[in-house]
Amino acid sequence: MQFEQFKLVDRIVELSLAEKTIRAEGVVPLESTIIDNHFPGHPLMPGVLLIESMAQTSGWLLMASLGFERMPLLAQVKEARLRNFVPPGKLLEVEAKLVHEGSGFSLTSAKVRSEGKPVCDATLMFRQMPFPTSDLQAGMIDAARRMGLPKESCLDV
Amino acid sequence: MSSTFDTVATIISETCDIPRENIKPESHAMDDLGIDSLDFLDIAFAIDKAFGIKLPIEQWTQEVNDGKATTEQYFVLKNLCERIDSLVAAKSA
Fold this sequence. Notes:
Chain A is α+β, with helices and mostly antiparallel strands. Chain A has 3 helices and 6 strands.
């Protein structure tokens, strides 16, 4: 993870468009100005960033399921539960499942675990919109490939 | 239609915390009930689930934006319910 780059998962471990599921993982950085200040002498990954990790993982799933023709934007976080604290250096496993594909919106169910223990979970709603620019679309596809999204899931642009 | 309206009115009441008695077939979801676009996504989700359909909200919004339809055609509840009934019938056909 790179908090300052707002990268909240390191790589995509598994994607199933048939099952509409994704698994990703990331290591909480040992050093970061955010961690240093949350909290001084007692560093913990902020809860809002845990939620963002679920949103980003869901986002990769949704972009892949939409053929990278549209981008999802987080619209609602429903019933988020932050169950355990996470210190720096821990590996987080993030899972998301598409639970509803509406007209112009999607819902995912997502959760984070670390060392087998539940860390957080939530239902997330996203609006879908066309990529505002082709550069952004291409950039997201490049990023998806670097993250390990299967090549066949990425649109050729 | 009345059963469809009852279901939709209950969904709106529970989703948006609007008293059930204030929700009428003639009510405009946005103009009369004050439902915003985010709340309407929740309502659309609940309607999709309740009726096993996919409300074509994007298409409706586009038609309104293009001046090909009015918001009343889609978002006055009695009209919305007629469209839900049509979508359910089309799915069953």
